[in-house]
Amino acid sequence: MNWDDTPEEAAFRAEARAFIEERFPASYRPAGEEEQSLEPEDVAGYNWPVDRVAGDPGRREGARAWAAALAERGWIAPHWPREYGGAGLSAMEEFILHEEMMRARVPTVNGIGAFLLGPTLLVHGTEEQKARHLPAIAKGEATWAQGFSEPGSGSDLASLRTRAVRDGDEYVVDGQKVWTSLGQYADWLFVLVRTDPDAERPHRGITFLLIPSDAPGVTVRPITDIRGAEPFCEIFFEGVRVPVADRVGEENRGWYVAMSALGFERAGIGATIKYEQALAELVGYLRSPEGARFARTSPALRQEIARRRTEIRVLYNLARYTVSRQAAGEEPDFEASINQLFGAELHQRIARTGARAFGRSAALWERADAPLGALFTHMRRDSVASTFLGGTTEIQRNVIATRGLHLPRG
Asked: Which CATH number is 309's domain given?
């Protein structure tokens, strides 16, 4: 396939580059020591949902100014219709914009609300829900978190136990969610709850609700990860009353709304560029005088780096293939699982390759005292979660086998 830009795409790419150079706030600089997120598509040193409420006034205002600049163009949610705050861009233009932002190392805005919940509401939401929530997301005024996983119900999501009981025009929600990425910074949560505990098939008794994170009865507790950071949290619901008007889709049909939402996962270009840049930094360092003193190279390591480079290009091609299907009006299916699986395992392989180059120095954690700022030490710990973040390797392989290869279920 030919992935070269068409003349129109090349013109849009140039426009996006110029916009980023002109409008990204000069005062909004990366916080190199902070470890807030595990998402592979985050730009190192930035985490917009965290930055927008940061205690540092400069960082907070920089994050909000960047959101305002993007919102002027409708580029927080560029693929959405203009009436909801988007720009009406094509799938390929959205892909190019995200690629250029990653290459410039500037953050995207409003993550999960813009690329996952918003498209779900466009398909399944009521007109009232769209009018209430989409413009706030597209302006960077409201952030969202995904309340799906529970203790014992992560990969087997259909076994979830958080319960919602109908009481007139409200649901009363009780239960717990866990591993909710950046939930402690979210204004709203979209949550799967069980409304029919006696359903013959568990996934048929689930409902999709929208819940304010500050609603009475909601308790949020951050979770500390292997790095000492708090990128996610557990959330408790105790008698939380949710209007029926905040249900998306039909009662007991929330599983299908959720599967639709997960189908809107990004094509993976952000992770591709992040890995490409990390490998380029490693090669540049190994060729430098400092690298000659603090790292070690060998024919085996050079071959390993070449394999990682090839794999990054494969991941890029997978991302381009996925978005080309979207641009053709098709709905990607198992391709999202291929991207997730290949990208997650590649994340771990790149981290191990970088760590091997530094020998004992790869154990140094403090950035100021380590060669290459301990980049691959941190990446190695980040990558631990890759093969279960967003769906375990086993689940992704099952999806590929059954939906892609049409193999029988075991």
From this structure: 1.20.140.10
Indicate whether 345 pLDDT > 70: yes
Tokens standing for residue 181: 């990425």
The pLDDT of 401-406, averaged and rounded, is 89
Q: The tokens of 321 are what?
A: 């293939």
**Domains held by the chain: number:** 3
CA distance linking residue 254 with residue 148, whole number of Å? 11
Question: If you write DSSP's letter for every residue of 178-241 in order, what string do you get?
Answer: EEEETGGG-SEEEEEEES-TT-SSGGGGEEEEEEETTSTTEEEEEE--TTS---EEEEEEEEEE
Closest CA to 357 of 278, 273, 270: 278
Question: What pLDDT shows up at residue 266?
Answer: 54
Beta strand pairing call for 247-248 and 170-181: unpaired
Q: What is the pLDDT of residues 105-162, one digit of tens each?
A: 999 998 899 989 999 999 999 999 999 999 999 999 999 999 999 998 776 788 899 9
Residue 49 inside a domain? The answer is yes
Give the global pTM: 0.91
Catalytically active residues, by annotation: 265
Q: What is the mean pLDDT of the chain?
A: 91
Q: Which domain holds residue 309?
A: 269-404
Look at residue 263 and tell me if it is in a domain. no
- pLDDT at position 410 over 70: no
- Name the token pair of 143: 């952030």
- Give, rounded to a whole angstrom, the gap between the first and last alpha carbons of the chain: 35
In contact, 46 and 133? CB cutoff 8 Å: no
Mean pLDDT of 299-316: 96
Rounded to whole angstroms, the Cα distance separating 30 from 44 reads: 7
C-alpha 110/C-alpha 49 separation (Å) is 7
What is the per-residue pLDDT across 253-270, written as a single tens digit (0 to 9) for each?
Answer: 999 999 887 766 655 688
Q: How many residues does the chain have?
A: 410
User: Do residues 298 and 394 share a domain?
Assistant: yes
**How many CB atoms are closer than 10 A to CB 373?**
17
Distances (CA, A) of 196 to 91, 151, 160, 199: 37, 19, 12, 6
| CA 109/CA 143 separation, integer angstroms | 9
